């Protein structure tokens, strides 16, 4: 009996539960969310490619240039036909390929060219790698380098030929050869060698033969014999043949003897007066500057130097210390250890 009552009450509970659920469904209708509205944003158009760089038109000119300043250092371009200096060379390539050089040419990383802070442009110089003896004629047509007292920046291909592209720098000697042809790798032709302002300064001499004849003597006039002699006439201009100079930037590499051991110095000046040199050395005493006596063109010269160094980085650091003291007329040079 009790079991029957429990079963009956269980069935009643189930019936009541489902009844309540049914009532809830009837009294609270199900809310259906509206379908989402999908908006399609316009597809972004592919960005327009940048316009092609403007065509670089070369306009080469012979140029010496005015004094200019880079950072705290002033540079004074000038004619330097006796230029023969040593220092550290570097190279430049892809970042400047196709850009105009300082004299209006187009820089080509595959050509044999270079940049110098003060030489005229374009000129041909011989660059000799003092570390391996490779020597090459380079056409200087740009300004630079302006980093750590470097003496010259050569094109990437020139650095390859000189054997220092991988290392980045080299100890070199740079020797002036002559003014370069504006439109070729060789030396300038005679028409380009004479600046126009000099060539046009006086009228040109006649190029055709001048007809002349003796004047008839004037009656009663006194004639002085022997007044005009060859000794007081202007000397006849002689044509001087100049031997051809192997100074063409055509990529030919030669091998030359170089010192077996070289060292790097930071040079803060070269003086003919030992007192002036000593004054500068005393001012830079904290950097280890000393006066190095020497000879140049048969005359005494006194160089103020810091060093020697064997690593370029050490020379760079010494140069920075000198410049920090306000002495900007400083350069890095290379010399044999016996000098």
Structure report:
The chain has 339 residues and is of the alpha+beta class. Among the domains are: 60-186 and 247-258, Beta Barrel (Barwin-like endoglucanases); 259-339, Alpha-Beta Plaits. It contains six helices and 13 strands. The protein has helices spanning 2-27, 156-162, 190-193, 196-199, 274-283, 312-324; strands spanning 68-70, 73-75, 84-92, 113-115, 123-129, 134-142, 152-155, 170-179, 254-255, 262-271, 290-296, 299-309, 331-336. Strands 3-7-4-6-5-8 form a six-stranded mixed barrel. The chain has a four-stranded antiparallel sheet with strand order 11-12-10-13, with helices on one face. The longest helix has 26 residues, at 2-27. 26% of the residues are buried. Residues 1-18, 20-33, 35-44 and 232-245 have low confidence and may be disordered.
Q: Quick summary of this structure?
A:
The protein has 339 residues and is α+β, with helices and mostly antiparallel strands. It has helices at residues 2-27, 156-162, 190-193, 196-199, 274-283, 312-324, and strands at 68-70, 73-75, 84-92, 113-115, 123-129, 134-142, 152-155, 170-179, 254-255, 262-271, 290-296, 299-309, 331-336. Among the domains are: 60-186 and 247-258, Beta Barrel (Barwin-like endoglucanases), CATH 2.40.40.10; 259-339, Alpha-Beta Plaits (2-Layer Sandwich), CATH 3.30.70.1070.
């Amino acid at each position: 009996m009790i079991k029957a009552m429990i079963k009956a009450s269980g069935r009643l509970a189930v019936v009541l539960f489902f009844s309540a659920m049914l009532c809830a469904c009837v009294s609270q209708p199900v809310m259906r969310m509206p379908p989402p509205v999908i908006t399609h944003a316009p597809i972004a158009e592919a960005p327009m490619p940048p316009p092609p760089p403007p065509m670089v038109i070369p306009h080469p000119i012979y140029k010496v240039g005015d004094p200019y300043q880079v950072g705290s250092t002033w540079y004074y371009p000038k004619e330097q036909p006796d230029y023969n200096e040593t220092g550290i060379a570097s190279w430049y390539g892809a970042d400047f390929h196709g850009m105009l050089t300082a004299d209006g040419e187009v820089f080509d990383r595959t050509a044999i060219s270079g940049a110098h802070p003060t030489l005229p442009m374009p000129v041909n110089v011989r660059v000799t790698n003092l570390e391996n003896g490779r020597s090459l004629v380079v056409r200087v047509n740009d300004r630079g380098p302006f980093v750590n007292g470097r003496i010259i920046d050569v094109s990437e291909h020139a650095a390859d030929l000189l054997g220092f592209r991988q290392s980045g720098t080299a100890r070199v000697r740079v020797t002036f050869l002559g003014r370069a042809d504006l439109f070729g790798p060789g030396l300038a032709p005679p028409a380009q060698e004479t600046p126009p302002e000099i060539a046009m300064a006086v009228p040109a001499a006649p190029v055709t033969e001048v007809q002349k004849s003796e004047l008839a003597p004037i009656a009663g006039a006194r004639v002085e014999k022997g007044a005009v002699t060859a000794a007081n006439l202007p000397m006849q201009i002689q044509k001087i043949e100049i031997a051809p100079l192997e100074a063409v930037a055509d990529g030919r590499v030669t091998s030359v003897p170089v010192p077996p051991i070289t060292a790097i110095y930071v040079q803060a000046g070269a003086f003919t007066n030992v007192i002036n040199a000593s004054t500068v050395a005393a001012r830079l005493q904290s950097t280890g500057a000393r006066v190095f006596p020497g000879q140049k063109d048969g005359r005494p010269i006194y160089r103020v130097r810091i060093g020697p160094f064997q690593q370029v980085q050490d020379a760079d650091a010494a140069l920075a210390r000198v410049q920090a003291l306000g002495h900007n007329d400083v350069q890095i040079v290379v010399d044999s250890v016996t000098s």
